[in-house]
Amino acid sequence: MSINTDLMVPVTSPTQNLYDFAIIGGGIVGLSTAMALSRTYPDRRILVLEKESNWAPHQTGHNSGVIHSGIYYKPGSLKAKFSRDGNTSLVEFCQEHGIDYEICGKIIVATEPQELPLLENLYQRGLENGLKVEKISNEQVKEIEPHVSCLAAIRVPSTGIINYKQVSQKYAELVESRGGELHLNTKVEKIITSNNTHILETNQGAFQTKFIVNCAGLQSDRVAKLGQVNPQIQIVPFRGEYYELIPEKRYLVKHLIYPVPNPNFPFLGVHFTRMIDGTIHAGPNAVLSLKREGYRKTDIDWRDAAEVFTYPGFWKLAAKYAGVGIEEVIRSFSKAAFVRSLQRLIPEVQAQDLVPTHAGVRAQALTNDGKLVDDFLLVKGQNAIHVCNAPSPAATASLAIGEAIAAQITEQLVIGNW
User: Which of 23, 159, 194, 358 has the highest CB neighbour count under 10 A?
Assistant: First the structure.
């Protein structure tokens, strides 16, 4: 295999701000991509730009810290493959670098008779995805989670918990140790493409690069458009709101407890998650956020809101699933409704056992015809790859995603292949 060296910048270039690869976005996917490129091209100049003052500040830094198994995802999809592979490689990475994690397993429970066929379908999907899953009875559930009430369940042993901010920080350290250049507080405001190079104009000056990887998460569609690429989707932000069990009630949850998901909205459904620090989080509900990076109900960005409300795909989605959306909004403003959802899993939970905790915002890609993009979406541009849909389980899959992006870049650089 020969590489088109015309697309590569010599390391000895006298131009200070000339790079081979520039990654826009310093979340876990952007940093894992930089790490993969630093291994594949150890002698090339790699740049990572993050507009915030710390690494992994948004989706990565506000997620529930679960190492996913990949059971929910369509067999053969990128999510299914990358979750399974990423789960294994992430555990190995943590062992190598001394990062705390725990493979505690999770149970997915059916609490109503109509959920039993869905539970069976999920079990079969787990098998198709090459996972070790097991059916367990209500009595067996009680041995694992004594306070859960259900009709039946499946257990997924490979699910775990971790702190993804720590993982991201280690990724950043490794990229820098291999010669990568990392810039915080650096927002890309304009992209100019000319003669097979890109000039990234930022609030900290201009950077020139031969190849762009857009890992901007909640801003990924906008960055793609800056690069003259129409990704054929729009990011619609959904805020996930959580409660936390008070310390005296943490005994109610031993591991991870999930309901059978709504197949139309696999990211919905309140559940219990034991975090790596020992706290127990309950949630999330999922409501439309009026700000892409809005973690409070009062956060509003008029540009963000206007883009959602003028996007035809949003109204088509809202019309189709109005009932589900209304339920989520009610649960957002009514603690009693939120508690009732939790009591389906653990009847003992009471409102006084819960206090509000952090929220996260999911960058969900939505097509113009109102369909949720249910797989990772990588869009090619001129000497560019735009990661335009990488919500959960992207953190679990980050190492696998980074390797896949590096492989795609190599394919694009092969003479005559792109």
Answer: 23
- Which tokens belong to 78? 């990128």
The per-residue pLDDT for range 105-121, each reduced to its tens digit, is 999 999 999 999 999 99
pTM over 0.85: yes
For 380, list phi and psi in degrees, rounded to 5. -85, 140
CB 313 within 8 A of CB 369: yes
With contact defined as beta carbons under 8 Å apart, do 90 and 396 qualify? Answer: yes
Q: Is the pLDDT of residue 190 over 60?
A: yes
Among candidate residues 127, 73, 68, the one with its CA nearest the CA of residue 103: 68
Alpha helices in 15-77 (DSSP H): 28-40
Cα separation, 370 vs 392, whole angstroms: 20
Percent of the chain with pLDDT over 70: 94
| 35 and 402 Cβ atoms separated by less than 8 Å | yes
Kindly indicate the confidence band of residue 232, based on its pLDDT and cuts at 50, 70 and 90. very high
Extract the tokens encoding 303.
Answer: 């540009």
- Please compute the mean of the pLDDT values over residues 82-101 and round it to a whole number: 97
3-state DSSP assignment of residue 205: strand
By the 10 Å C-beta count (0-12 exposed, 13-18 middle, 19+ buried), 111 is classed as middle
φ, ψ (nearest 5 deg) of residue 410: -60, -40
Strand ranges (E), 128-195: 134-137, 152-156, 160-162, 181-183, 188-194
Give me the pLDDT at residue 324, please: 87
Per residue in 238-280, pLDDT (tens digit) is 999 999 999 999 999 999 999 998 877 756 689 999 999 999 9
What's the CA angle centered on 348, arms 162 and 142, to 5 degrees?
A: 65
Q: Are 189 and 170 in contact (CB under 8 A)?
A: no
Helix (H) or strand (E) holding 122: helix 116-128
Q: What is the DSSP letter of 229?
A: -
What's the CA gap between 33 and 19, in Å, rounded? 15
- Residue 98's Cβ-count burial label (10 Å; 0-12, 13-18, 19+) is exposed
Torsion of CA 117, 271, 26, 189, to 10 degrees: 80
